[in-house]
Design brief:
The protein is 36% helix and 26% strand. By secondary structure, the protein is of the alpha+beta class. The longest helix is centred in the first third of the chain and has 54 residues.
């Protein structure tokens, strides 16, 4: 009986010791190691999220450049296919600040005068956007009667406007005018500007004989 009692007391003592030990918690060293490992996981996750956000922002900037350049070129090309009297003005039209591309477009129900030019819109002395004057009928361009509208998106900068015009002097053997139009553009976002540069151009021959 005594031996059984001693055995029981030893068992209780062992359980009490183990219980007290389990209630002691973590040591300072264990807490420092755990916090360090948790911090590394958080920093790694945050870095991945920032990289993903930056990649998405850059993709959006590139898409805006591509979409805007293609839209600008597509609309000009569509109008030029049904254009007559295509000229690069020797002097700016009435009340307009610069020379540009002028023609009569038959893309609408009735012929309408069009004028495009490369303009400085932010006041730094460097042209950065394509402006458009769309007269409601065929006739003289007047930038006061119809105010110029920025044709390219404010989110992109036009670094260069490519324009080559040949065969536009009417004669018996001049053929049809050939108009090469193009742009070099990039995003106005300074973080991704140089990385989004796009060079796009096309050549158009009008269907209507001058």
């Amino acid at each position: 009986m005594i031996g059984d009692r001693n055995l029981y007391m030893n068992f209780l003592s062992s359980c009490t010791h183990n219980t007290m030990k389990s209630r002691q918690g973590f040591t300072l060293l264990e807490l420092i190691v755990a916090i360090g490992m948790f911090s590394l996981v958080v920093l790694g996750t945050a870095d991945l999220m920032l990289t993903a956000f930056n990649t998405q922002a850059k993709a959006i900037a590139v898409k805006e450049v591509i979409d805007n350049a293609r839209f600008t070129l597509e609309l000009m090309t569509r109008e030029l296919r049904t254009a007559t009297n295509v000229v690069y003005t020797g002097t700016p039209p009435a009340n307009c600040p610069r020379n540009g591309l002028e023609y009569i477009s038959y893309n609408q129900v009735s012929p309408q005068e069009r004028f495009y030019y490369w303009e400085d819109t932010d006041g730094d002395g460097v042209p950065d956007a394509i402006m458009r004057v769309a007269m409601p009928s065929a006739g003289s361009i007047d930038c006061v009667a119809v105010l110029p509208q920025q044709f390219t998106s404010p989110g992109v900068i036009v670094d260069s406007w490519i324009l080559r015009l040949t065969g536009n002097n009417p004669s018996a053997s001049d053929g049809q005018p050939r108009i090469t139009v193009g742009f070099i553009v990039h995003s106005r976002d300074r973080r991704y500007g140089p990385e989004t540069t796009l060079d796009i151009q096309t050549t158009v021959i009008p269907r209507i004989r001058d």
